[in-house]
Amino acid sequence: MAKPQKRYVCQSCGSVSHRWQGQCADCSEWNTLVEEAGANVTPFHAKHNLQGGGRMIALSALDSEVALPERMPSGVAEFDRALGGGFVEASATLIGGDPGIGKSTLLLQAAAKMALAGRDVAYVSGEEAADQVRLRAQRLGVGNAPVKLAAATSVRDILTTLSGARPPALLIIDSIQTMHSDLIEGAPGTVSQVRASAQELIRFAKERGTALVLVGHVTKDGSIAGPRVLEHMVDTVLSFEGERSHQYRILRAIKNRFGGTDEIGVFAMETAGLSEVGNPSALFLTHRDEGVTGTTVFPALEGTRPVLVEIQALVVRLASGATPRRSVVGWDSGRLAMVLAVLEARCGLSFLSAEVYLNIAGGYRVQDPAADMAVAAALVSALSERPVPIDAVAFGEIALSGEVRPVAHAALRLKEAGKLGFERALVPQAMAGDGGGLRTTGFRTLGQFVEYMLGR
pTM for the complete prediction? Predict the structure, then answer.
């Protein structure tokens, strides 16, 4: 238990003494030492003082010139785009995703291409046997790649093996939840084991200059399983998203210390593995010659990449007394409720007795607030059975007051729409004018936009 430390301070000169005495030893004044309460002293504090005994560290100026970290291209352009240009030496990357989404397939393809390019790559699988990984590599057509392969779960065995030779340029651990450290007790996958195993692997990567990739399991709500500190320990966190019933997969950067966040890479799952999609806008659009009610094209923005997606809405009138249903796929259900409320309160439209279904085509997930106006256009089109012009795109953020607010990076959105043959854009009033080759129609309020959609 901590015990208080007594000290006596001279009221004349401020000298401190650990015992009382009649005369101050420094100023020779009498009866000036007064007891004062000191700090509590624990046995640890008495023996360990961190203000001394360490080594001096070098402090550099913020504006000092340093070389930028070199990138190691993975050979998969969409993968490099999400990483910010490629792997960085001595970096740690965590990639998570649902089971069977294609994490191991993507990493095996990238490892094979890097190995064929002359890089030293090691792939350690804790979930599959080495023969299973070889069979997958043969199916993907990369069975001849000189990738060093092992099936192990002991962190001590892995680091002992890698420390005895030249460290690899890229080390893939599939997955971190299967690794086990004998320094602490606990089964693989527990919070303490995941944290300890990741810490040892990251320390090895930082000391030996190896780019480390950790595969992480996800929970039922989509977040990476294990301690939250795992995402803080690594330099980059990637999320591999998509529906297994759909062909397309999206690799999204959630955290990146060496590049921008919210960058995405788009892949298509095929028989021979994952193939890159250079123009994702063409994949999420339905090609038709005439307009269809309830559909709107929205130019979404993922980082610096514009992606055109199709928003589909269906409004079904019900008999009186029935409870209407609201179903959303690929968008925030709370955001849909807000748009419906604004349409009813500010524009005089009624959705109280109608079921509303909203879908983002192609399994894409939209998180951009600029989708409000496109969703409103699809809802008004489905309710009035008047199609949105087939050559038009719509974007803008809707406020609760009914105002249509401008959004960021309008030029990129309009440029992408123009590349795919669109001629008109329905945008906020503040952004009308320079459409980059497209005819823009601006709206100050959502009420004006509804009047335009209804042809009034």
Answer: 0.72
